[in-house]
Amino acid sequence: MTPSLTGAIHVCLLGDDPVRIMTPALDPALAPREVVLVVSPQMQERAGWLEAVLRPRGIQVTRWPIADAWDITGVRDTLLHHVIERGGEPLILNASGGTKPMALGAFDVFRGLGRPVFYVHPVADQLIWLHPDDRGTHPLADVVNLRTFFEAHGAAVEAVAGTQGVPTAYRELTDTLIRHVARFERPLGTLNYLAGSARGEDLFSRPTGHTPPGFGDLVHLFAEAGVLRPVGDRLQFKNEDARFFAQGGWLEQHVFSVLWGLKAERPIQDLARGVEIVRHVGGAPVHNELDVACLADNALYLVEAKTKHFEKGEGAEVVYKIETLRELLGAVHARAMIVSYKPLGEAHRRRARDLGIATCIGEEIGWLREQLRHLIPAQRGR
Fold it and tell me: How far is residue 246's CA from residue 239's CA, in Å, rounded to a whole number?
């Protein structure tokens, strides 16, 4: 059984993975009074990201610089000096991050001085005691939210479209669209285009012009749900949210709604759709939008929801985008899925599979709940 560690000092080896430093630091059962970051020159920026997460939560943050993350002797000497200098303070080593030489050198110092050492399992989301090794394990609390998770990875949340459930009328309309993919695939493309053309205070679309079979039935469904109304040869949308819904936001909201319904059986701790984030690369802001983002058992799940037809090259762009964001915002702690009402080329689906990205395409959306249950385990790694 894990003893009470409240008020201890976590000495953490900083590398590319901030999650295994952040989750034990924010676990109420561990609650350190201070986090010491062992930082190489290459990790100074990441240290700043973690400080911005920990300090507002009342945790003091100190840096112990090291000259070379690959010099085991230098790491050992630096840590030995600092630990001895701290005297009898309750220092505990979190050996989860950094390079292998950092971990080995730090472990030698702490074990040699009889100080405790733990490791956070990257998959099982639990703390494992390495020294002494008779303390067992500790499942980490799921207290991190999406905003904090992104901040630890250097991304700030600028806006969130929704964190609450989807209106009943919209859910019923979405269910109809999903049951009749073959019937509404083409007319939905036309509706997407017209919704995208609606601008100004009145939100009138361009003239409908020539429309594919089934378009009239589709408009009737959206009108019954209160999304729009036909006015002559144009469509008028109820408001900006309704226009977004008609332009394809309905699928984003459907994914969100299914995940919302899984809260009772999956350890989902935070969930949002339409999340706008900004990162700074080389001093310049880079903006991205995440269709649906979910945290479960301290792991990130990203879902890209698409209703548009993939023109030449766009399928590859979607796969590249979600793979890049998964690596930047979570890496080993992140998984991703592409949900598309329209077909995704076999080459792009194969590329997604090779990258470990799940896909749910066309009529498969009818089984989205089961696919998301498979994507998000009841308990990660256990």
Answer: 11
Q: Strand 117-120 vs strand 126-131: parallel, antiparallel, or unpaired?
A: antiparallel
Domain ranges of the chain: 9-141, 157-164+249-375, 168-246
Q: How far apart are CA 316 and CA 269, in angstroms?
A: 31
Name the pTM for this structure: 0.91
- pLDDT tens readout for residues 311-354: 766 788 899 999 999 999 988 889 999 999 988 888 999 999 99
The CATH number corresponding to 168-246 among 3.30.300.30, 1.10.287.3510, 3.30.470.10, 1.10.10.680 equals 1.10.10.680
Give alpha helix (H) positions in the chain. 19-26, 44-54, 72-85, 100-112, 146-152, 168-179, 181-197, 215-224, 240-244, 250-261, 314-329, 346-354, 368-375
